[in-house]
Amino acid sequence: MRILVTGAAGFIGSTLSHRLLERGNDVLGYDNLNDYYDPTLKEARLARLAPHANFRFVRGALEDRPALERAFAEFRPQRVVNLAAQAGVRYSLTNPYAYVEANLVGFINVLEACRHGGVEHLVYASSSSVYGANRKLPFSVQDAVDHPVSLYAATKKANELMAHTYSHLYQLPTTGLRFFTVYGPWGRPDMALFLFTRKILAGEPIEVFNHGKHTRDFTYIDDIVEGVIRTLDRVPAGDPAFDPMHPNPGSSAAPYRVYNIGNNRPVELAHYIEVLEQKLGRRAEKILLPLQPGDVPDTFADVAELSRDTGYAPSTPVEVGIGRFVDWYRAYYAV
Ligand SMILES: NC(=O)c1ccc[n+]([C@@H]2O[C@H](COP(=O)([O-])OP(=O)(O)OC[C@H]3O[C@@H](n4cnc5c(N)ncnc54)[C@H](O)[C@@H]3O)[C@@H](O)[C@H]2O)c1
């Protein structure tokens, strides 16, 4: 099986590629290694993949249509996982065009390449941020998601709409996965766990938004990757139960699905920090701040549909996952 993974130098993409290679798939990684965060970390992730004989890599941007088309024409992927995107909620308040380029222009290029390349299944990253101003918990794919509170979220919701159009018009099977705060080894330096760890070890204070009171459905990377692979292996068909008089937002008469992929066990930020302090053996000096514009107070994933359809069963509590992150961080940075 030939699988093209965009964002293969990223946190989720590199871990996913690793697992796909281990189970014997051919993987083409596609990534522009941009400098949104330290590119040497991206290179180090790629260096772990390079020894696999079945791994190839192309450095390119999604919005570079000729480069993307060339990669598809040469590799002829059977399945595609689109993880490359401009991520991050707060950055979208100051750099909106980065999101339009990578997440909208880039995504239409991926859809077109999949359509013309006869791809069997496109799995793509959406986000829990699409729930925006919703307050009904847990978040369900049955809920309307029409009130995004950041441009990042709006582009992820747009991806779901664009995917549906291609599933409907061209019978391209697509599955969107709404990821809920992913963490673990080889993680992202712009995310809380990484930022807190660096600052606590350097003896610097950490900024704790919403006074540490918000909850997040923190999901461990290995659980996420397991869920992505189970999803990738299950090509959606049109839902025979789909009723256009009462349209189910998570499915369609077209080969289209959207799922939440979270831990289903929300944890308060203050507790997450306490666990980190225990694992590091150090207390954090905290600067308590209000909720940031664009951020949502709580997230909690209803994963019943993904579990029903794929057997997804996340099993890693934050006490275990944070410990593994800290072990990785100390080894990688030799601190
Ligand atoms: N990590 C999370 O908690 C989380 C939560 C919700 C959604 N997501 C989504 O999951 C996906 C993967 O996230 P991640 O945490 O691994 O992020 P990441 O930033 O580590 O990985 C994304 C990779 O894509 C590459 N990339 C970015 N723009 C590109 C472009 N225009 N062309 C080619 N390559 C490009 C980057 O260089 C990076 O290596 C993203 O779509 C993100 O929005 C992640």
From TrEMBL:
It comes from the Bacteria. The keyword 4Fe-4S does not apply. InterPro entries: Epimerase_deHydtase, NAD(P)-bd_dom_sf. Keywords: NAD. The keyword Chaperone does not apply. Residues 3-240 form the NAD-dependent epimerase/dehydratase domain. This is UDP-glucuronate 4-epimerase.
